[in-house]
Amino acid sequence: MSDYIFENNQDFALTLDKNDELNQYRSNFLFPKEKNGYSCVYLCGNSLGLQAKNVSEYLEQELQDWSDFGVHGHTKAKRPWLTYHLQAREGFASLTGSKESEVIAMNTLTVNLHMLMASFYRPTQKRFKILIESTAFPSDRFAAESQIRLHGFDPEDALIEWEPKDDELLLEDYKKIIAEQGDEIALILIPGIQYYSGQVMPMEDLCSIAKKSNIKIGLDLAHAVGNVELELNKWEPDFAAWCTYKYLNGGPGSIGGAFIHEKYHGGDGSQQLLGWWSNDLSSRFKMEASFVPANDADLWQVSNPPVFSLTPVIASLKIFKQATFPKLREKSKKLTGYMDFLIQDKFENRITSITPIKNRGCQLSLVIKDESLNGKEIFNSLTEKNVIGDWREPNVIRMAPTPLYNSYEDVFNFVSRLEQSISETT
Ligand SMILES: Cc1ncc(COP(=O)(O)O)c(C=O)c1O
Question: Which CATH number, 3.90.1150.10, 3.10.490.10, 3.30.1330.90, 3.60.110.10, labels domain 10-52+324-425?
Answer without folding.
Answer: 3.90.1150.10
